Amino acid sequence: SYEKLQNIRQSRLNPALATYYSKPLALHQGYKQWLFDINGKRYLDLLGGICTVSVGHCHPKITAAVNSQMDTLGHVSNIYYHPKLHEYAERLTDKMPGELKVVYLVNSGSEANDLAILLARLYTNNFEVLSLTNCYHGMSPQTMGLTSLGAYKYCIPQPPGHHHVMNPDVYRGIWGGANCRDSTVQTTRTCNCSSNFCEASDKYFDQVAIQFDHNIPKGHVAGFFAESIQGLGGIIQFPKGYLKRVYELVKKNGGVFISDEVQAGFGRTGDNFWGFQGHDFTPDIVTMAKGIGNGYPLAAVVTTPDIAKALTKASHFNTFGGNPVACSVGISVLDIIEEEKLQENSKLVGTHLLSELAKLRSEFPIIGDVRGKGLMIGIEMVNPGTKEPLQSKKFLKFFDTCMNLGVLLGKGGVYGNIIRIQPPMCITKEDADFTVAVIKHALQSD
Ligand code: PMP
């Protein structure tokens, strides 16, 4: 019963756990883009276990792969050769451009980014790492230094060698307005720029240059971390040209560029398999988690053979990383994305949903912005006529209404006022229309 679950939650589980709703929601079952609560009520899942269930809940192909692997060989560690590890290493790195051909398999996004920090420092022999405000890269002691959102910044000293640069948020940032977007991206605001290097891009880029001029001793940078689209930060897309220029500047200063593809990777953005590919450059290190395993604990770091060599300065080992079951899941996820054309579906359904939501924005001034790419969509909720974040009480009521109507949404942003839509990539156009209808109804009943 709910009461029993609630008692255990309150007395035995991490008290920092949050919920989006005024009443707890106890889920029991999942199938594709659908979730069912313990009373059998069905919900359209638009958060996908926090952008993780990429190919759908309880996909039969993954279940079969896990069962078969568990029946054959569950774990041996990567001291030994095993075919699934080797097959997966090849399959995953085949998806990467250029020299990015060496993979380390780990279990979570935080671990992947921890390892990327280590690789960047060992390879460059430098220590300083940079990341953007509003970013999320993990909650381990090291990645907490990268993470800007929700970390324990104010109560414990941060790990040394971490620097934050202002994120190029063209809606809420101090140089908002001069928006420059890829023409394939539907946006509700007009683009004022005529080139790749719009005014906003220039100004935000200058912030990175200032860090190098003033805060990081010359020749001391190890790496720059960025999500290609900020996820938890509120689906923040960067002005065109920005990431490429930062990449060039970081390289010029002796560092490496790390693209965190934990949310934007695996076809979610529609046009490309990796988010960075929409920005016209190839990073030195790519980290990935979440969608890579459809809910199974699997994550990875991919880099060049040259950078990878840096880890041989000491031993590097991860007990579970690349275990046969995880690799079987990883292979199945890649198969399913291809077989079911989920990247193409992300583009098709995401573009449709984005344009329908943009129409809602013109009807409801409570919607300040609609943005995103593929099935990575953000809706910024404001007090009408302003950019002030919508009061949390109103937002809670909105979430409750959507939940009652059978739609589960995500939340993000520094102020927690951004709706995040990052569903399993198998959702349909009809699901998108249902979502818009539910959001509209929830806004009207406010
Ligand atoms: N990077 C990004 C972009 C993320 O969104 C997250 C998780 N929200 C992480 C890293 C950390 O992943 P994990 O929770 O698996 O450690």
From TrEMBL:
* Role description: Multifunctional aminotransferase with a broad substrate specificity. Catalyzes the conversion of glyoxylate to glycine using alanine as the amino donor. Catalyzes metabolism of not L- but the D-isomer of D-beta-aminoisobutyric acid to generate 2-methyl-3-oxopropanoate and alanine. Catalyzes the transfer of the amino group from beta-alanine to pyruvate to yield L-alanine and 3-oxopropanoate. Can metabolize NG-monomethyl-L-arginine (NMMA), asymmetric NG,NG-dimethyl-L-arginine (ADMA) and symmetric NG,N'G-dimethyl-L-arginine (SDMA).
| Cofactors, names only | pyridoxal 5'-phosphate
Q: Where does this polypeptide localize?
A: Mitochondrion
**Single Gene Ontology BP term?**
glyoxylate catabolic process
Indicate yes or no for the key word Repressor: no
User: Which PROSITE patterns does this UniProt record tie to the protein?
Assistant: AA_TRANSFER_CLASS_3
InterPro entries the UniProt entry points to: Aminotrans_3 (IPR005814), Aminotrans_3_PPA_site (IPR049704), PyrdxlP-dep_Trfase (IPR015424), PyrdxlP-dep_Trfase_major (IPR015421), PyrdxlP-dep_Trfase_small (IPR015422)
Quaternary data? Homotetramer.
Question: What name is this protein filed under?
Answer: Alanine--glyoxylate aminotransferase 2, mitochondrial
Q: Which family does it belong to?
A: Belongs to the class-III pyridoxal-phosphate-dependent aminotransferase family.
Reactions accelerated catalytically: 2-oxopentanoate + N(omega),N(omega)-dimethyl-L-arginine = 5-(3,3-dimethylguanidino)-2-oxopentanoate + L-2-aminopentanoate; N(omega),N('omega)-dimethyl-L-arginine + glyoxylate = 5-(3,3'-dimethylguanidino)-2-oxopentanoate + glycine; 2-oxobutanoate + L-alanine = (2S)-2-aminobutanoate + pyruvate; N(omega),N(omega)-dimethyl-L-arginine + glyoxylate = 5-(3,3-dimethylguanidino)-2-oxopentanoate + glycine
What EC number is given for this enzyme?
2.6.1.18, 2.6.1.40, 2.6.1.44
Question: What is the scientific name of the source organism?
Answer: Popillia japonica (Japanese beetle)
What GO cellular component entries does it have?
A: mitochondrion
The molecular function terms in GO held by this entry are: (R)-3-amino-2-methylpropionate-pyruvate transaminase activity; alanine-glyoxylate transaminase activity; beta-alanine:pyruvate transaminase activity; pyridoxal phosphate binding
Top-rank taxon, per record: Eukaryota
